[in-house]
Amino acid sequence: MKPIMFVHGFWVTPRSWENWIAYYEAKGHQVIAPGYPGFEVEVEALNADPSPIVALTVPQIIAKYEEAARSLPEPPVIIGHSAGGAFTQILLDHGFGAAGVALNSAPTEGVRVVPLSQLKSTFPVLKSPANRHKAIPLSFEEWKYAFTNTFTEDESRALYERYHIPASGGILWGGVLANFQPGHQDTWVDYHNDNRAPLLFVSGSEDHIMPPAIQESNAKHYKSNTVTERRVYEGYAHLLPAQKGWEQIADDVLDWALRHAR
Q1: Domains (range + CATH), the chain
Q2: Residues 150-175: pLDDT tens digits?
Q3: pTM (two decimals)
């Protein structure tokens, strides 16, 4: 069986994959879910001391996941969520992975679609350039709008308390500026790379922070001869991996990945 490697996004840690890890392990897969550099501690510790978040860079994150992929007995299925979806695309472009799945993915360099709901979701970070040197948390109301807008109040609150941590203002600002600076930036991929493993974009129709229009544009940028497909799941918010019915999506994407794996 193919091993599986999860890549988490911002404002959460590998804990956000806890349900999927257990689900795939029960099917017999070797599963790993590395954290970003400095994320070897729990949610509570990162909330108490966010200095590891402030120090993060995209190259450091990618290097950490490349090292993790090399540790596996064969190329894994790579599944990333949100910023982890962008990192999944970068890992595939670098030659890692047998197949990739990007759930509610953040865009790679060159994708200029910026829906209003995304602007509202990321405003807590982007409202001030000074946040480039800080770790920025979300209030519960900001979390509910950006991550769990289709969840009940109780569900949203419980997930906020279990998963939420601050995010790197520097990386988020870097993503915004990437399309306006000369040369390749941290989230650049070669959209013409014919050697890249197959890639599936998955969108939740109700996602506010990374709406389906972003993944649609991102997928259209790929001009390679490798498989690049996209699916939309109706009624799902950004925190799709924790929303009721996630098991069906987990089955669907794993089936797709194993059928298309190199």
Answers
A1: 4-260 (3.40.50.1820)
A2: 999 999 999 999 999 999 998 887 76
A3: 0.96
